[in-house]
Design a protein that fits this description.
The chain has about 375 residues and is mainly alpha-helical. It has 18 helices and 10 strands. The chain has 2 domains: about 160 residues, 3-Layer(aba) Sandwich (Rossmann fold); about 120 residues, no CATH class. The structure holds glutamic acid.
Length: about 375
Protein backbone atom coordinates (compact mmCIF):
# COMPACT_ATOMS: atom_id res chain seq x y z
CA UNK A 1 0.00 0.00 0.00
CA UNK A 2 1.53 3.29 -0.96
CA UNK A 3 2.07 5.93 1.66
CA UNK A 4 -0.50 8.72 1.86
CA UNK A 5 -0.11 11.52 4.37
CA UNK A 6 -1.87 14.82 4.83
CA UNK A 7 -1.12 18.24 6.20
CA UNK A 8 -4.32 19.61 7.69
CA UNK A 9 -3.90 23.12 9.01
CA UNK A 10 -6.71 25.14 10.47
CA UNK A 11 -6.95 28.33 8.45
CA UNK A 12 -5.65 30.90 10.92
CA UNK A 13 -3.61 33.41 8.96
CA UNK A 14 0.09 32.73 8.74
CA UNK A 15 1.48 29.31 9.67
CA UNK A 16 3.18 29.11 13.01
CA UNK A 17 6.58 27.53 13.24
CA UNK A 18 5.05 24.39 14.78
CA UNK A 19 2.56 23.95 11.91
CA UNK A 20 5.34 24.51 9.40
CA UNK A 21 7.26 21.73 11.15
CA UNK A 22 4.23 19.43 10.70
CA UNK A 23 3.96 20.35 7.02
CA UNK A 24 7.64 19.72 6.45
CA UNK A 25 7.71 16.44 8.40
CA UNK A 26 4.86 15.16 6.21
CA UNK A 27 6.58 16.37 3.03
CA UNK A 28 9.86 14.68 4.01
CA UNK A 29 8.09 11.46 5.03
CA UNK A 30 6.13 11.30 1.77
CA UNK A 31 9.26 11.91 -0.32
CA UNK A 32 11.26 9.41 1.69
CA UNK A 33 8.67 6.68 1.04
CA UNK A 34 7.65 7.67 -2.48
CA UNK A 35 4.21 8.60 -1.16
CA UNK A 36 1.62 11.32 -1.63
CA UNK A 37 1.03 14.44 0.43
CA UNK A 38 -2.46 15.81 0.54
CA UNK A 39 -3.30 19.33 1.69
CA UNK A 40 -6.54 19.62 3.59
CA UNK A 41 -7.91 22.78 5.11
CA UNK A 42 -9.56 22.01 8.45
CA UNK A 43 -12.20 24.71 8.28
CA UNK A 44 -15.09 23.14 10.17
CA UNK A 45 -14.98 26.15 12.45
CA UNK A 46 -16.55 28.39 9.82
CA UNK A 47 -16.82 31.50 12.00
CA UNK A 48 -13.07 31.66 12.43
CA UNK A 49 -12.01 30.58 8.94
CA UNK A 50 -12.04 32.68 5.84
CA UNK A 51 -10.59 32.72 2.36
CA UNK A 52 -7.89 35.19 3.43
CA UNK A 53 -6.75 32.80 6.13
CA UNK A 54 -6.43 29.95 3.68
CA UNK A 55 -4.54 32.18 1.26
CA UNK A 56 -2.05 32.92 4.05
CA UNK A 57 -1.32 29.23 4.48
CA UNK A 58 -0.90 28.63 0.75
CA UNK A 59 1.42 31.62 0.51
CA UNK A 60 3.56 30.37 3.41
CA UNK A 61 3.83 26.85 2.00
CA UNK A 62 4.72 28.28 -1.40
CA UNK A 63 7.35 30.53 0.12
CA UNK A 64 8.87 27.62 2.03
CA UNK A 65 8.87 25.50 -1.12
CA UNK A 66 6.75 22.79 0.52
CA UNK A 67 4.66 21.40 -2.33
CA UNK A 68 1.67 19.09 -2.00
CA UNK A 69 0.46 16.46 -4.44
CA UNK A 70 -3.31 16.60 -3.92
CA UNK A 71 -5.72 19.25 -2.72
CA UNK A 72 -6.38 21.61 -1.17
CA UNK A 73 -9.51 19.85 0.01
CA UNK A 74 -11.78 21.71 2.41
CA UNK A 75 -13.69 20.21 5.28
CA UNK A 76 -16.36 22.87 4.83
CA UNK A 77 -17.25 21.20 1.49
CA UNK A 78 -17.99 17.92 3.23
CA UNK A 79 -20.54 18.60 5.95
CA UNK A 80 -23.06 16.34 4.19
CA UNK A 81 -20.60 13.50 4.07
CA UNK A 82 -19.91 13.82 7.82
CA UNK A 83 -23.67 13.64 8.56
CA UNK A 84 -24.08 10.66 6.26
CA UNK A 85 -21.15 8.90 7.94
CA UNK A 86 -22.68 9.57 11.36
CA UNK A 87 -26.03 8.12 10.23
CA UNK A 88 -24.30 4.92 9.14
CA UNK A 89 -21.78 4.58 12.00
CA UNK A 90 -21.88 2.10 14.86
CA UNK A 91 -22.47 3.38 18.39
CA UNK A 92 -24.02 6.74 17.54
CA UNK A 93 -26.71 8.14 19.83
CA UNK A 94 -28.60 11.42 19.92
CA UNK A 95 -28.54 13.21 23.24
CA UNK A 96 -29.24 16.85 24.15
CA UNK A 97 -29.77 17.58 20.44
CA UNK A 98 -26.27 16.47 19.43
CA UNK A 99 -24.84 13.24 18.00
CA UNK A 100 -22.52 11.35 20.30
CA UNK A 101 -20.27 8.41 19.62
CA UNK A 102 -20.10 5.67 22.19
CA UNK A 103 -17.02 3.61 21.38
CA UNK A 104 -15.40 0.74 23.31
CA UNK A 105 -12.98 2.03 25.96
CA UNK A 106 -13.88 5.73 25.39
CA UNK A 107 -16.10 8.15 27.22
CA UNK A 108 -18.87 9.15 24.74
CA UNK A 109 -17.99 12.25 22.71
CA UNK A 110 -19.86 14.63 20.42
CA UNK A 111 -19.41 14.04 16.70
CA UNK A 112 -22.14 16.35 15.30
CA UNK A 113 -23.17 19.54 17.06
CA UNK A 114 -26.80 20.53 17.54
CA UNK A 115 -26.74 22.45 14.23
CA UNK A 116 -25.52 19.35 12.38
CA UNK A 117 -21.93 20.49 11.94
CA UNK A 118 -19.22 17.89 12.49
CA UNK A 119 -16.70 18.31 15.30
CA UNK A 120 -12.99 18.34 14.52
CA UNK A 121 -12.45 14.75 15.67
CA UNK A 122 -15.30 13.37 13.57
CA UNK A 123 -14.49 15.33 10.41
CA UNK A 124 -10.82 14.37 10.71
CA UNK A 125 -11.52 10.67 11.19
CA UNK A 126 -13.99 10.55 8.28
CA UNK A 127 -11.56 12.40 6.03
CA UNK A 128 -8.53 10.33 6.97
CA UNK A 129 -10.61 7.22 6.24
CA UNK A 130 -12.10 8.48 2.96
CA UNK A 131 -8.78 9.83 1.75
CA UNK A 132 -7.03 6.52 2.55
CA UNK A 133 -4.46 8.21 4.75
CA UNK A 134 -1.88 5.67 5.90
CA UNK A 135 0.13 7.78 8.37
CA UNK A 136 -0.83 10.84 10.36
CA UNK A 137 2.14 12.94 11.42
CA UNK A 138 1.30 15.89 13.66
CA UNK A 139 2.32 17.68 16.82
CA UNK A 140 2.04 15.92 20.16
CA UNK A 141 -0.52 18.53 21.22
CA UNK A 142 -2.92 16.18 19.37
CA UNK A 143 -2.03 13.10 21.45
CA UNK A 144 -5.32 13.18 23.34
CA UNK A 145 -7.32 13.32 20.08
CA UNK A 146 -5.71 10.20 18.68
CA UNK A 147 -7.72 7.53 20.56
CA UNK A 148 -10.96 9.36 19.73
CA UNK A 149 -10.08 9.47 16.04
CA UNK A 150 -9.07 5.80 16.06
CA UNK A 151 -12.43 4.93 17.63
CA UNK A 152 -14.24 7.10 15.10
CA UNK A 153 -12.53 5.43 12.12
CA UNK A 154 -13.47 2.02 13.51
CA UNK A 155 -17.07 3.15 14.00
CA UNK A 156 -17.35 3.71 10.25
CA UNK A 157 -15.81 0.32 9.55
CA UNK A 158 -12.28 1.47 8.72
CA UNK A 159 -8.81 0.61 9.91
CA UNK A 160 -7.14 3.63 11.57
CA UNK A 161 -3.95 5.04 10.06
CA UNK A 162 -0.67 4.93 11.96
CA UNK A 163 -0.33 8.03 14.15
CA UNK A 164 3.08 9.60 14.76
CA UNK A 165 3.53 12.66 16.94
CA UNK A 166 6.39 15.11 16.82
CA UNK A 167 7.60 17.70 19.33
CA UNK A 168 5.84 21.01 19.65
CA UNK A 169 7.97 24.13 19.33
CA UNK A 170 8.07 26.62 22.18
CA UNK A 171 9.73 29.96 22.71
CA UNK A 172 11.70 31.25 25.66
CA UNK A 173 8.71 31.92 27.83
CA UNK A 174 7.29 28.43 27.26
CA UNK A 175 4.82 29.28 24.54
CA UNK A 176 6.09 30.65 21.27
CA UNK A 177 5.41 34.35 21.28
CA UNK A 178 6.00 37.17 18.89
CA UNK A 179 8.80 38.44 21.10
CA UNK A 180 10.89 35.45 20.16
CA UNK A 181 10.94 36.89 16.70
CA UNK A 182 9.85 33.53 15.44
CA UNK A 183 6.15 33.26 16.03
CA UNK A 184 5.08 32.73 12.45
CA UNK A 185 6.45 32.06 9.01
CA UNK A 186 5.26 35.53 7.98
CA UNK A 187 7.39 37.08 10.76
CA UNK A 188 10.46 35.20 9.57
CA UNK A 189 9.83 36.25 5.99
CA UNK A 190 9.49 39.88 7.02
CA UNK A 191 12.68 39.66 9.08
CA UNK A 192 14.47 38.50 5.95
CA UNK A 193 15.29 34.89 6.71
CA UNK A 194 15.62 32.98 3.44
CA UNK A 195 13.11 30.12 3.15
CA UNK A 196 15.97 27.66 2.59
CA UNK A 197 17.25 28.41 6.10
CA UNK A 198 13.83 28.08 7.72
CA UNK A 199 13.26 24.72 6.01
CA UNK A 200 16.77 23.62 6.97
CA UNK A 201 16.18 24.64 10.59
CA UNK A 202 12.81 22.87 10.82
CA UNK A 203 14.12 19.82 8.97
CA UNK A 204 16.90 19.43 11.51
CA UNK A 205 14.37 19.72 14.35
CA UNK A 206 11.99 17.21 12.75
CA UNK A 207 14.24 14.26 13.48
CA UNK A 208 17.02 14.17 16.02
CA UNK A 209 20.60 13.41 15.04
CA UNK A 210 23.49 15.24 13.42
CA UNK A 211 22.98 17.55 10.49
CA UNK A 212 24.10 20.90 9.24
CA UNK A 213 23.46 23.02 6.14
CA UNK A 214 21.06 20.96 4.02
CA UNK A 215 18.69 21.51 1.14
CA UNK A 216 15.26 19.90 0.95
CA UNK A 217 16.78 16.92 -0.89
CA UNK A 218 19.39 16.50 1.84
CA UNK A 219 16.69 16.68 4.49
CA UNK A 220 14.70 13.95 2.71
CA UNK A 221 17.80 11.74 2.85
CA UNK A 222 18.30 12.47 6.52
CA UNK A 223 14.66 12.08 7.56
CA UNK A 224 13.81 9.10 9.73
CA UNK A 225 10.38 8.89 11.34
CA UNK A 226 11.77 6.62 14.06
CA UNK A 227 13.75 9.59 15.29
CA UNK A 228 10.94 12.16 15.30
CA UNK A 229 11.67 14.83 17.90
CA UNK A 230 9.73 14.28 21.11
CA UNK A 231 8.45 16.48 23.91
CA UNK A 232 9.06 20.15 23.33
CA UNK A 233 11.76 21.88 21.36
CA UNK A 234 12.76 25.37 22.34
CA UNK A 235 13.26 27.62 19.36
CA UNK A 236 16.93 28.51 18.96
CA UNK A 237 17.18 31.90 17.22
CA UNK A 238 21.00 31.66 17.15
CA UNK A 239 20.92 28.43 15.17
CA UNK A 240 18.35 29.80 12.77
CA UNK A 241 20.46 32.92 12.23
CA UNK A 242 23.61 30.88 11.66
CA UNK A 243 21.83 28.75 9.05
CA UNK A 244 20.42 31.89 7.47
CA UNK A 245 23.89 33.42 7.13
CA UNK A 246 25.23 30.28 5.52
CA UNK A 247 22.37 29.87 3.08
CA UNK A 248 22.60 33.53 2.06
CA UNK A 249 26.35 33.23 1.61
CA UNK A 250 25.87 30.19 -0.63
CA UNK A 251 23.35 31.81 -3.01
CA UNK A 252 24.45 32.49 -6.58
CA UNK A 253 25.43 36.17 -6.88
CA UNK A 254 22.49 37.17 -9.10
CA UNK A 255 19.99 35.47 -6.85
CA UNK A 256 21.34 37.20 -3.75
CA UNK A 257 21.36 40.61 -5.44
CA UNK A 258 17.79 40.12 -6.70
CA UNK A 259 16.50 39.12 -3.28
CA UNK A 260 18.14 42.15 -1.68
CA UNK A 261 16.93 44.55 -4.37
CA UNK A 262 13.38 43.26 -3.93
CA UNK A 263 13.45 44.52 -0.36
CA UNK A 264 15.21 47.84 -0.99
CA UNK A 265 13.20 51.05 -1.36
CA UNK A 266 12.08 51.69 -4.96
CA UNK A 267 14.74 53.54 -6.92
CA UNK A 268 17.69 51.88 -5.18
CA UNK A 269 20.38 51.64 -7.89
CA UNK A 270 20.90 48.00 -8.85
CA UNK A 271 24.57 48.74 -9.57
CA UNK A 272 25.14 49.85 -6.01
CA UNK A 273 23.72 46.59 -4.72
CA UNK A 274 25.68 44.54 -7.25
CA UNK A 275 28.91 46.24 -6.17
CA UNK A 276 28.16 45.20 -2.59
CA UNK A 277 27.68 41.58 -3.44
CA UNK A 278 30.84 40.29 -1.67
CA UNK A 279 29.91 42.20 1.49
CA UNK A 280 26.34 40.85 1.37
CA UNK A 281 27.78 37.41 2.06
CA UNK A 282 28.34 38.45 5.67
CA UNK A 283 24.74 39.35 6.52
CA UNK A 284 22.55 37.26 8.80
CA UNK A 285 19.28 38.17 7.08
CA UNK A 286 18.03 40.02 4.02
CA UNK A 287 16.82 42.80 6.31
CA UNK A 288 20.44 43.28 7.36
CA UNK A 289 21.49 43.28 3.73
CA UNK A 290 19.12 46.18 3.11
CA UNK A 291 20.61 47.98 6.11
CA UNK A 292 24.04 47.47 4.66
CA UNK A 293 22.93 48.95 1.36
CA UNK A 294 21.36 51.90 3.16
CA UNK A 295 24.39 52.51 5.29
CA UNK A 296 26.56 52.68 2.20
CA UNK A 297 24.20 54.98 0.34
CA UNK A 298 23.40 57.28 3.27
CA UNK A 299 26.16 58.62 5.54
CA UNK A 300 25.23 58.55 9.25
CA UNK A 301 25.53 61.46 11.67
CA UNK A 302 29.17 62.01 12.50
CA UNK A 303 30.73 60.04 15.37
CA UNK A 304 34.42 60.30 14.46
CA UNK A 305 37.05 57.72 15.41
CA UNK A 306 40.38 58.97 14.04
CA UNK A 307 42.34 55.79 14.98
CA UNK A 308 40.01 53.91 12.69
CA UNK A 309 40.52 56.35 9.82
CA UNK A 310 44.31 56.03 10.21
CA UNK A 311 44.29 52.25 10.03
CA UNK A 312 41.78 52.13 7.18
CA UNK A 313 44.03 54.44 5.13
CA UNK A 314 46.71 51.74 4.98
CA UNK A 315 44.44 49.21 3.23
CA UNK A 316 43.34 49.11 -0.41
CA UNK A 317 40.38 51.07 -1.78
CA UNK A 318 38.19 47.97 -2.01
CA UNK A 319 38.39 45.04 0.42
CA UNK A 320 37.33 41.48 -0.16
CA UNK A 321 36.29 39.30 2.77
CA UNK A 322 39.86 38.26 3.60
CA UNK A 323 41.17 41.83 3.48
CA UNK A 324 38.26 43.16 5.50
CA UNK A 325 38.68 40.48 8.16
CA UNK A 326 42.41 41.28 8.39
CA UNK A 327 41.52 44.92 8.94
CA UNK A 328 39.10 44.05 11.73
CA UNK A 329 41.82 41.90 13.35
CA UNK A 330 44.20 44.81 13.22
CA UNK A 331 41.62 47.11 14.84
CA UNK A 332 41.17 44.55 17.58
CA UNK A 333 44.93 44.30 18.17
CA UNK A 334 45.17 48.08 18.26
CA UNK A 335 42.33 48.05 20.82
CA UNK A 336 40.10 50.26 18.73
CA UNK A 337 36.62 49.66 20.22
CA UNK A 338 34.73 47.75 17.54
CA UNK A 339 31.34 49.00 18.66
CA UNK A 340 32.52 52.57 18.17
CA UNK A 341 33.97 51.60 14.80
CA UNK A 342 30.54 50.31 13.80
CA UNK A 343 28.88 53.50 15.01
CA UNK A 344 31.36 55.70 13.16
CA UNK A 345 30.74 53.85 9.90
CA UNK A 346 27.02 53.11 10.12
CA UNK A 347 25.57 55.14 12.98
CA UNK A 348 24.17 51.92 14.47
CA UNK A 349 25.01 49.56 17.31
CA UNK A 350 24.10 46.39 15.51
CA UNK A 351 23.97 45.06 12.02
CA UNK A 352 25.95 42.98 9.57
CA UNK A 353 29.35 41.58 10.53
CA UNK A 354 31.84 44.42 10.82
CA UNK A 355 34.02 42.94 8.06
CA UNK A 356 31.03 43.15 5.73
CA UNK A 357 30.65 46.85 6.53
CA UNK A 358 34.31 47.38 5.57
CA UNK A 359 33.85 45.36 2.42
CA UNK A 360 30.83 47.47 1.53
CA UNK A 361 32.35 50.93 2.10
CA UNK A 362 35.09 52.16 -0.24
CA UNK A 363 38.18 53.40 1.56
CA UNK A 364 37.65 57.10 1.04
CA UNK A 365 34.08 56.95 2.23
CA UNK A 366 35.07 55.00 5.37
CA UNK A 367 37.80 57.54 6.11
CA UNK A 368 35.41 60.45 5.56
CA UNK A 369 33.00 58.98 8.10
CA UNK A 370 35.64 58.17 10.73
CA UNK A 371 38.04 61.09 10.41
N1 LIG B 1 -6.28 21.18 12.05
C1 LIG B 1 -5.50 20.71 13.14
C2 LIG B 1 -4.49 21.75 13.56
O1 LIG B 1 -4.21 22.64 12.79
C3 LIG B 1 -4.64 19.50 12.81
C4 LIG B 1 -5.41 18.35 12.53
C5 LIG B 1 -4.66 17.06 12.43
O2 LIG B 1 -3.49 17.04 11.99
O3 LIG B 1 -5.30 16.08 12.72
O4 LIG B 1 -3.99 21.67 14.65
Amino acid sequence: MSVRVRFAPSPTGSLHLGSALTALANRLFARRHGGTLLLRIDDTDTERSGPGMEAGILRDLGWLGIAWDEGPLRQSDRFDRYREAAAAARGVEIRDGACWLRAPGQAPFVILRGDGRATYNWATAVDDHDERITDVIRGNDHLSNTPLQEAAVRAIGGEPPRYLHHAVITGDAGKLSKRDGAASIADLRIEGYPPEAVVNYLGLIATSGPGDVLTLDGLVERFDERRLARGTVKVDPGRLRALSTRHLAALPADDLVTRVLDRCPPGTPADAVRALEPALRGVHTLAEAVELVECVLVAPDREPLPELAAIRARYPERLDEGGARALVDELRRAEVPLRRARRALTGRDRGPELWAVFAALPRDEAIRRAA
